[in-house]
Amino acid sequence: MAVAVRKEKSTKRPRRLMLCAKNAPRAKLPERRRRRPPERRSVAKAVSRSHYPSSSAVHYDNFVERLEDLGYDDVFPGKVLNAETSGMIAMEYNFDPVFEDAAEKGEEEERDLKARPEVEDKSLLPSRPPVVTIMGHVDHGKTTILDYLRKSSVAAGEAGGITQHIGAFSVPLSGSGKSITFLDTPGHAAFLAMRQRGANITDIVVLVVAADDSVKPQTLESLRCAREAGVPILVAINKIDKPEADVERVKNDLARHGVEIEDFGGDTQVICVSGKTGKGMEDLEEATVTLSEILDHRAEADGPVEGWVVEATTKSSGRVATVLVKRGTLRPGAVIVAGKTWGRVRTLKNEAGQIVHEAGPGIPVEVDGWRHQPSAGDEVLQAPNEQKAGDVVEYRQEKEERERTAQDMEAINETRRVEQERRAREKAEESAKKSSGTAAIDAPPSPAETASTAQKEPGQLTVPFIIKADVSGSAEAVAAYIPSLTSPLIAPQILQSGIGPVHESDIEFAATVGGHIIAFNLPANNDAKAAAEAKGVRILENNIIYRVLDDVKEVLEGKLPPLVTQRVLGEAEVSVSFDIDIGRRKRMWIAGCKVRNGVVGKGSRVRVMRGSEKIYDGTISSLKNVKKDVQEMRKGTECGIGFDMWEHFKVGDQVQTYEEVSEKRRL
Prior knowledge:
5 domains, Rossmann fold
């Protein structure tokens, strides 16, 4: 972050700042008799210790000495100083630090695009269709209600009968003749980010609750999203046609969770409907239109376009994104920026795939012509030309890189310090080796180095995954959902997430890292499957979100080492020891034992305990009854036991035979 440097005299004497490392004593600096007026100096957000002196016209050795006087004992050349520390040090050199925030703000205003300020008096603006988001728990009938209003059947095409990605539809209502834009959000727990986006860009939330299921976790989650967004709520109690429906129970549950419904003296309207039979749907339509008229939604139809990316995917025609226009009118040929990409609009299509010539405020439309794939939730702003759009994207990428560098500063400092210590130790060892003429003894690693090594080589196994999905929202949901399977023994690691079919590069990447590919809601690709099998890569194909978790869980369990348990088969006690002749002038010591429990068998795994200490773990090589070799001896019998390559037993030792049972671990 660069800062302007201004020469300016100051009548105020700057207050002396003492910089101290944590728990370091404050060092008192000698007072100067006379001070020149402080010179303004720019301070970057992050600057290395070796670069700071040259940027401040200070001699390097004097700078290091000053840092040590101020209490910094870990002053290695690669250390990165943050803006606050750099500014405080600058004041010690009689500089008046000017931080980059002001300069960066000016650069942002010059290079970035921002939405226009809201018009104070909207009464003269044209009205726009309200944006209504349907939210609720999975399988409570949200899409069925929308299908009835649209006179279509989206739910029939949904995998598993649940909505997998956010849908935006402009619906002309037959009763009122008005048009309403509906957003249908998924109800499954994995799609929290989609529900939050739906709540943030909407005007009204219709909270759907099944009459036979009442309030569920995602109902409360949807309620929280709507409250955080400050959006008015209508409650639709669905499935009232079912015999087990209990409307009063639903109302009581809602009231218990803070929903002030009209029946109990509140202002939240509750409508009982059946998306299957159509009962109460006219009441829901009327309540939605009435509330939108009260709220009186208006927006400018002219001026630069503003909006939001609702969903993004890749089709045969290229990269496309569903954009909900907020202000202005979007037409083909317009240059728009979304997040860190831009594009020139080639075509606009409505939800039915028909080409439209323009889209005004409150209208969702599918846009193609993107240079790169935008992300769901990105703000869309119109740029005056392609050059400006490219400059905006470049600035945003630079800003993201600076912010990432600032966040990684502490990790960078720690890594560089450990590396500095390692080099210093190696140099000391080399010097000692040269001076003594003998090999130097390896010094133990420092605690920081040990911690760093432990961080790189944890006991927890990691299994890499690459996610490919039909739309960006689904990829985002799967990537957020899979880490819930993390356990102390194993954890899934998302290497990359993208949209579109599985390509050869994805298979090569997965084969290189030993990972797996998750193909969510994508059409079957036999060629990719065959290529993956040839390279030993498994493609987990599924189109239902909760089954993805089962597939990943199966993969993780297959990577875990088996759970080995020991089951005791028999117990005996050494009563006497004697030796026998085994031929070729060799003798073998035998433990005369009495079997106390179970069965003692020849060739069994055995451990010998002396008190609480295990003194032998091996196998039984010889088992005799009197002078006969036997295969096993049972409880209450006496036998002679010979141990494989071990004869140091004593009278009173406890002998246990056991078997190891291997079981598959479960998460």
